[in-house]
Amino acid sequence: MRFAGSDPQGLAATNTRVRRGRQAVLLGAILLPLAFLWGCAGIVSGPNSKPADGQTSTFSISGSITPAAAGSGATVTLAGVASATTTADGSGNFTFSGLANGAYVINPSRAGFSFSPVSATITVSGANVTSGANFTATAQTSSISGTISPVAGGNGATVTLSGAASATTTANSSGTYTFTGLANGNYTVTPSHTGYIFNPTSLAATVNGANISGLNFTATVQAGPTFSISGTISPSAGGNGATVTLSGTAGGTTTANSSGNYTFTGLANGNYTVTPSHTGYTFNPTSHAATVNGANITGLNFTATAQVAPTFSISGTISPSAGGSGATVTLSGAATAATTANSSGNYTFSGLANGSYTVTPSEVGYTFSPTSEVVSVNGANVAGVNFTATAQVPHSVALTWMASTSTKVTGYNVYRSTVNGGPYTLVNTALIPGLNYTDSTVQDGLLYYYVATAVDSSGDESPYSTPVSANIP
């Protein structure tokens, strides 16, 4: 096999290999004076990541508290190498900036909520920290309890809770009842038991971060005849399984049957109110007043209408507008969608049900901070999910080399790898006739190794030159 630069009159195979080895020696030096090009403005020596004399680099810790409704307005405290306090924004996000390297402890707090984890230990070591400082907030709950006496009237009595939440329970054999898992708010407790009247007929209670006990009632056997109140909730799709609550002279709850029919029995004369409820439905009228006076009451009917579930929106801005205008914004999670930011960088997703979503912007030639945002929709629109767009700087590597001393060289090849020693991949698509080449296909944040070879008119190629490296910022 003949090689670029071999004796045109023909040499022994051993001499060819020797000359080929000599070519390798020559080529081994040709890439040594390479210079590298970052960006668009010419040959430079590369970036310098060290801060200027007298300056100290500082960093940030950021995180979030979910769901947003619980995280919004929460107090977040930083302790450790430095101490600080901040308030989570409307999405539950928070940031501490200007921090030196070291260990920190982050504690969230908000009245009426507990947090998991209780605190987070974060170490800053030469970079911003964007993970490990996330918390889940859980509303703290309390209970309401009491006793209905005597036992004969309390045992098996139905106790109804209304107000900030609604529920029913049955008093045990001792006449004791309890409602648990209650958020702060105003409640009314009403007992009922066929053949009994109660004193008082109901009790109001306000839960404010503590259990409430001692909401007690006295049951008295009714004297004289009793009557009933009945009616129908239509259509049956809305009536079937609906809860119907009775209040007034006596209280109680019942469940409408598959045809939407309901009945309250054992009622003494007096004034009553009947109120239906069923998740996903509204009722017309919302309640009926009824006076029992020596006779049963029938025909207290209601019409159920299916509710249209409310929907909400997520919106924000990508700035500056040069990077935001026309950017694609993708929504994933409880629903998926994509939209395009307007000329001011504003975007909106509407018609969203409650749930957890992830918003991610993208635009050719730009990077975004943050890369995405997790957003919880919980009964309200979420605004201010904002991003900052930064134009990407195109990078390239300019290679130059010394000419081979062979007179038969027709061109050169350049090879590249991200591993010193290869394997190497050919970069150029055609043989390079000159002594320079610019590689414009490099990616940010990678270290490349380059080698070159010489090719003669017969297509024979020399061994690789000594590699040189280029670190792309």
How is the topology of this model organized?
Layout: H1 13-30, E1 36-37, E2 43-44, E3 59-66, H2 68-71, E4 75-80, E5 84-87, E6 93-99, E7 102-109, E8 113-116, E9 120-124, E10 135-139, E11 142-149, H3 151-154, E12 158-163, E13 167-170, E14 176-182, E15 185-192, E16 196-199, E17 203-207, E18 217-221, E19 227-234, H4 236-239, E20 243-248, E21 252-255, E22 261-267, E23 270-277, E24 281-284, E25 288-292, E26 302-306, E27 312-319, H5 321-324, E28 328-333, E29 337-340, E30 346-352, E31 355-362, E32 366-369, E33 373-377, E34 387-391, E35 397-400, E36 409-417, E37 425-426, E38 436-439, E39 447-456, E40 468-471
Parallel strand pairs: 3-10, 11-18, 19-26, 27-34
Antiparallel strand pairs: 1-2, 3-6, 4-5, 4-7, 7-9, 8-10, 11-14, 12-13, 12-15, 15-17, 16-18, 19-22, 20-21, 20-23, 23-25, 24-26, 27-30, 28-29, 28-31, 31-33, 32-34, 35-38, 36-37, 36-39, 39-40
